[in-house]
Specification:
eight-stranded parallel sheet, 10 helices, 8 strands, globular, binds 2-keto 3 deoxy 6 phospho gluconate
């Protein structure tokens, strides 16, 4: 898959909903009800971070949920790419980007949302062909004003800001011309997942799905 095709697919995924839930799931038994609750609320693109031993099993379970598009986050190595694809991930997300990682994703036909936080990082990926990127860590890197400033000289890059984004500050990003959607963990808080409060999660998802995107 070329970087251009990967970016086209990443853009389609980012346009599915205003928010991509970033999920850190430890118990595979919660995977399906959690994904169903988020999809029911209108958040259909889901990112499962490879930060728990259960993550690959969680991806495989969530991939069975109708209406959902499940991706793998925190991809750091070519081996992560292989495992994510085998588990059924339809897209990949990484906090930054390396040549080795991006080549592995291109070889595996896995559309990637690679992370950048500076103009130089964004330009390096743009040079390779990636016009859709994740702005990470968004809030710590200057938030919406920083992303707006990056957009002035680099309007051809569209972003999914992630990291410190919540219901309150999401509109600041979603109002920017260079923001397709945001990523965030706030729609699946650990206490609600642990309590099996799927209705509560659907409510949070619905609220997030209703955020206007300009
Ligand atoms: O590891 C990755 O690939 C990630 O996507 C990292 C996440 O962007 C942040 O962990 C988001 O976390 P919150 O600030 O809690 O919304």
């Amino acid at each position: 898959m070329t970087p251009q095709d990967a970016s086209r697919r990443a853009e389609e995924i980012c346009r599915l909903a205003p928010v991509i839930p970033v999920l850190v799931v430890s118990d595979p038994a919660t995977a399906r009800p959690l994904a169903e609750a988020l999809v029911a609320g209108g958040l259909t693109a889901l990112e499962v971070t490879l930060r728990t031993p259960a993550a690959l099993e969680v991806i495989a379970e969530m991939a069975k949920v109708e209406g959902g598009t499940v991706g793998a986050g925190t991809l750091l190595t070519p081996e992560d790419v292989t495992k994510a694809v085998e588990a059924g991930a339809k897209f990949g997300v990484c906090p930054g980007a390396t040549d080795r990682l991006m080549s592995a994703a291109e070889d595996a036909d896995l559309p990637m949302l690679p992370g950048t936080a500076t103009a130089t990082e964004a330009m390096v990926l743009l040079e390779r062909g990636y016009t859709v990127q994740k702005f990470f860590p968004a809030e710590a890197s200057g938030g919406a004003p920083a992303l707006k400033a990056i957009g002035a000289p680099l309007p051809q890059i569209r972003f999914c800001p992630t990291g410190g984004v919540n219901l309150k500050n999401a509109p600041d990003y979603l109002g920017l011309a260079n923001t397709l959607c945001v990523g965030g963990s706030w729609v699946a808080p650990g206490d609600l997942v642990a309590a099996g409060d799927w209705e509560g999660i659907t409510r949070l998802a619905r609220e997030a799905a209703a955020l206007p995107v300009s």
